[in-house]
Here is the input.
Amino acid sequence: MTADAPAARLAEFLDARGTTPERLLASVETSFGTPLLVVATGSVLHGFGNERSDLDLNVVVDRDTVKVVPIPAFEGDLLVDTKFFTVSQLREWTTELRDGRWPPAGHLTRDGYRRRHLLLFHCMRFAEGVELSSTDGSEPLIGDLHEPWLVGRVVEWWRAEQVRWSLAARWLADAKPLVAAQRWCEAVLAALECRVARAGESYFKPKWISEKLRRLGDEEGLAMLEAALRVPSTRHEAPAYSARCEELLQELDPHRQEGLAAQLWYAPGVTVQPLGTGTLVTRRQLRGLELEAKLPIPDEDEPIWEGPVEDTPDPDVLELFVEDMTWLSVVASEA
Amino acid sequence: MTAFPDLRRHVAYRAHGALRLLDWVQATLEDVEGAVAGGQFGVAAFQARTVILQCLSIRSLARAGEIDWDGAAFDHFAGLEDDEVARALALAREAVDLDEAGADEWLRRLREYVAATEAGLGYDAPLPILRSPQGPFAILGLARRWSDALEELGLPALLPPKWVADES
Here is the structure.
């Protein structure tokens, strides 16, 4: 893909809808601050879009705070989602991504996962978008995002995700084989994302995986994708499907688990109460679980279990995981 | 009048089920429709699985499902009958073999499945389309409608996390 290709696709897309980059720019809301940089992003720029595609505008404004809330607007039939960012936000995110490998060592909570995903999503969109307008001095804002390390972070993300999903699948297999099969599917999809990102297709939107593989001419990857999407519909079919997915993962990345550990944290909304010699665990008081063992009281600074990814938690902790009372993180092993 | 034995479950299903449909299912179904129209059958298959899992998770909210759906052990099928799950997953799997000849008929059945999921939520009128000029107001209206009940029951509010999260 040449550097001009996204701009050409954008122009063609807008022209077909009777609008122009200038009209898009004129539609940008200025009450959130003076725009310093406006970047058009979205699937269309990558050549993946279709007639239902929308367009996103990332706008960096000259103010101290702003929420990343999409502001939808319509240019005729074209939906334009505009998101606003601050200069300090973009600088902080860039530094955090550039200097922080994934997964990190130490404690990693659900909030840490969500933040990393959000940063990768937005920063990749800035990096791969088309600048519609900029002011003097705004170039350093996203210049660093064009360096190869950012794609490296995308590869790291998907590589860790394949381990997280496959670990979940393994732990769910006996009690909930059909749910486990879906996790195996996710693991293969993550492994394929890792594969295409390494090959140059790093657009951070999994739904386009087939188009990325197709553009790379990766017939083997397409066959793996097709196998993964043939999800089982009954418990009876699940074990064979799961075994096939595990084989695919082994082909895609046989060393994926090296140097990684797992952590389990209580999930949001979980309450833990001692009950005689056991424990009563509930989640939002919609569901509950009575265990014979004593379990730790929730502590936002300490996971309830941690171990190498090859290990399996104790039965009571595993039961908590299987019943969706925990958050699973994959972290780098401490040396 | 609707009688129900479990108020928390009822409110979670009606309120968060509607949010999940507005905020996720509608857009994913649009992706499938766009992909079918554009002959991108791989994209259609990918997003068909997502639509079906999202719909199953909404139906599951009425029985034993969970409100937060990002956990590694999240069970889209919790409390659902095996047959119901099997039929839905079979529809998703059919998408892997889509071609020009059968795509429209398959898409009709997918739309029916989504519509039946929405009907199950029990609203008087079809839910508004989020990705429309009126969409953001519709979701605010839904949030306002359920806010008191959710607060009283200690259940999460309805506005999508991405709308209220402090992402600085």
Remarks:
- Chain B touches chain A through 56 residues (CB under 8 Å).
- Residues 7-164 of chain B form one domain.
- The CA atoms of residues 13 and 52 of chain B lie 17 Å apart.
